[in-house]
Write a structure and sequence with these properties.
Chain lengths: 101, 286
């Protein structure tokens, strides 16, 4: 208890918390309505098409997010691959055989 | 039609200005602000009309103390049931002040874009300032109130939900107003209301700088939390027509800023004056 007081954690001001929470929520909000991120759904679909060539993947296994922090943005791609890797080989052989024909 | 009307507006810009008072969130002081700014503009000699866009929930008439004089309303005017002079209510205290009351109809679609444009164009012929009191939310009424605006006053309480909603409404102003469709920048003003300096100093309330940092639009004014506001609304008197008070003074400052009076005085100048130099202490020792 006293150590927290010493570190200044216990008397953290609520206005500071409010400020930080707002900065996050507002940056998300601006992203959602900003025209500059209109490409995200398209990017997601194209990624899905490319990855589907090699791996059997469902639409909800790809997660694309853009986060803005100050002057830079971070594009976060989260792709969950199936546990069975044989699918990849299947996909590749199928693909090469098609090319031969 | 739209183009010729725009050029008319441009040529007579000093003659008529449509200002929307908006916020997103309800209960932050839009109607109080519309009444106060409208009355102050009128007192300074500008012919001003305050228009209530809150169809179904009209309240501007109450705040301005003319609720018993409403005969026709905005929707009657759009439908042509009454003309402008029959619908406008002339304030009894202030020569240049008029009120256009909202309708109490439940029909949400009563405000059509064409109808609102027609009425605003008529008002532009007669008035120097048209203050549009927006309803809360981002539904039709709010969108109609801001669509034709030349400038916007964004009313914000130093509180998380209000600041977030203000940011939202700024986004709407930037994307869904006529100015935005014409690739023009709408002038936006931040008005912080219900500000409590003592709580800011204790770190219990967002400061002016905090709100300004997040919303990133120029500050028009800061209205302190004041008993004068409820007193004024109880009596149906706009704050700026009521007895001298801290809130009245702050609204008068805001109107000066809106009119570009005292251009040499920076925001910092009047803000520190308003807060009596106590601002220095508001900077926490961190």
């Amino acid at each position: 208890m006293s150590i927290f007081t010493f570190l200044g954690l216990s008397n953290r001001k609520s206005a500071q918390t409010a400020r930080e929470r707002l900065q996050i929520v507002v940056s998300h909000q601006r992203m959602a309505e900003g025209g500059d991120v209109d490409f995200l759904p398209k990017l997601r679909n194209e990624l899905l098409t490319v990855i589907s060539k090699y791996v059997k993947i469902e639409k909800d296994q790809i997660n694309v997010q853009l986060q803005r922090q100050g002057s830079c943005s971070i594009l976060e791609l989260n792709i969950t691959l199936p546990t069975n890797p044989t699918k990849i080989n299947d996909g590749l052989t199928e693909h090469t055989s098609e090319e031969k024909v | 039609m739209g183009k010729s009307e725009t050029s008319n507006k441009d040529s007579g810009k000093s003659e008529s200005k449509v200002i929307v008072v908006t916020s997103g969130k309800g209960g932050v002081g839009k109607t109080t602000t519309s009444a106060a700014i409208g009355a102050e503009l009128a007192q300074r000699g500008y012919k001003t009309v305050v228009v209530d866009f809150d169809i179904g929930l009209r309240n501007l008439d109450l705040i301005m103390g003319c609720e018993r004089r409403v005969i026709y309303d905005f929707v009657n005017l759009i439908h042509g049931d009454a003309n402008l002079s029959q619908t406008l209510i002339k304030d009894k205290r202030c020569e240049n002040l008029f009120i256009l009351p909202a309708s109490q109809t439940r029909d949400k679609d009563a405000l059509t874009t064409e109808g609102v444009e027609k009425v605003l164009n008529e008002l532009r012929q007669e008035f120097q300032f048209i203050v549009c009191d927006s309803p809360a939310g981002i539904e039709r009424g709010a969108l109609m109130a801001l669509y034709f605006a030349d400038e916007a006053v964004i009313v914000t309480n130093p509180e998380v939900s209000s600041v977030r909603d203000s940011d939202r409404i700024i986004g709407v102003l930037n994307s869904r107003s006529r100015k935005s469709e014409q690739n023009q920048e709408m002038k936006k003003h931040l008005l912080i209301t219900r500000y409590m300096l003592n709580r800011v100093q204790k770190g219990e309330m967002l400061s002016i700088e905090d709100v300004q940092d997040i919303l990133a639009i120029p500050l028009l004014g800061v209205i302190p939390e004041s008993t004068a506001v409820l007193n004024a609304s109880n009596n149906g008197v706009p704050v700026t027509l009521d007895n001298q008070s801290d809130a009245k003074k702050a609204y008068q400052h805001a109107v000066s800023e809106l009119l570009g009076v005292k251009k040499d005085d920076s925001n910092q100048g009047w803000a520190s004056k308003l807060l009596g130099g106590l601002r220095l202490f508001s900077r926490s020792p961190a």
